[in-house]
Design brief:
It is a single chain. This protein is of the alpha/beta class. The chain folds into two domains: 1-99, Rossmann fold, CATH 3.40.50; 106-193, Rossmann fold (3-Layer(aba) Sandwich), CATH 3.40.50. Helix content is 39%, strand content 22%. It has helices at residues 15-23, 43-50, 60-63, 66-75, 92-97, 120-129, 165-192; strands at 4-9, 30-37, 55-57, 80-83, 102-106, 134-141, 151-158. A seven-stranded mixed β-sheet has the order 3-2-1-4-5-6-7, with helices on one face. Strand 4 (80-83), helix 5 and strand 5 form a beta-alpha-beta unit. The longest helix is centred in the C-terminal third of the chain and has 28 residues, at 165-192. The structure holds 5-O-phosphono-beta-D-ribofuranosylamine. 5-O-phosphono-beta-D-ribofuranosylamine (GRF) is lined by residues 10, 12-17, 84-85, 105-107, 119-120, 172, 176.
């Protein structure tokens, strides 16, 4: 049986990308065929190179051009796309080509603390400033608007008023590591059924 090919987009540290790669390493049905980044100096790029994971860097101009990304992914017969800490907007024609086959993770309980500029520490700081008693992650499909695609799953964690922004980040990181790969696998399996 042909495996489902996954492309992971990442712009930063890549803890999620690495976790997804590890999760599918010996999977019979799914394989990661490429990591795509818009940042040559992103830690995830160096890690892929060291670990012989295929990685492709496109400039910001290139990633703004949906056709370049479509052609690249077509060549690799990519079936699913995962955004794991990818910080550029995905072009509309790419989103339409992979309709409901692009999965993003957002480090808050959307619709709270989403939208343009809401990434990384900005999100955790906003959660802390709003004195939230809980936060979490949202895994969702990608549409034309930042963080507004159909939700797939949300996972919660409790916050203490004494939690620093760094502690909030760590709690989110734990949720991401525990749940993101398995949710991706479930989405793929539900489509294969
Ligand atoms: C994660 O918190 C993810 O939810 C968000 O960006 C962060 C990326 O972290 N979209 P990493 O690069 O995977 O370590």
């Amino acid at each position: 049986m042909k495996k489902i090919n996954l492309a992971i987009f990442a712009s930063g540290t890549g803890s999620n990308a690495k976790n997804i790669i590890a999760h599918f390493e010996n999977n019979n049905a799914v394989q990661v065929v490429t990591v795509i980044s818009n940042k040559e100096d992103a830690p995830i790029v160096g890690w892929c190179q060291q670990n012989l994971i295929p990685v492709q860097i496109f400039s910001n101009d290139e990633v703004n051009n949906g056709q370049i990304l479509i052609d690249f992914c077509k060549n690799l017969t990519v079936d699913f796309v995962v955004l794991a800490g990818y910080l550029r907007k995905i072009p509309g024609d790419f989103i339409r080509y992979f309709d409901e086959k692009i999965i993003n993770i957002h480090p808050s309980l959307l619709p709270k603390f989403g939208g343009k500029g809401m990434y990384g520490m900005n999100v955790h700081l906003a959660v802390k400033t709003a004195c939230e008693s809980q936060t979490g992650i949202t895994i969702h499909f990608v549409n034309d608007n930042f963080d507004e695609g159909r939700y797939i799953a949300q996972f919660f964690c409790k916050l203490e008023s004494s939690d620093s922004v760094e502690v909030i980040q760590e709690k989110i990181h734990t949720l991401e590591q525990n749940y993101f790969p398995i949710v991706i696998e479930n989405v793929i399996n539900s489509i294969l059924l």
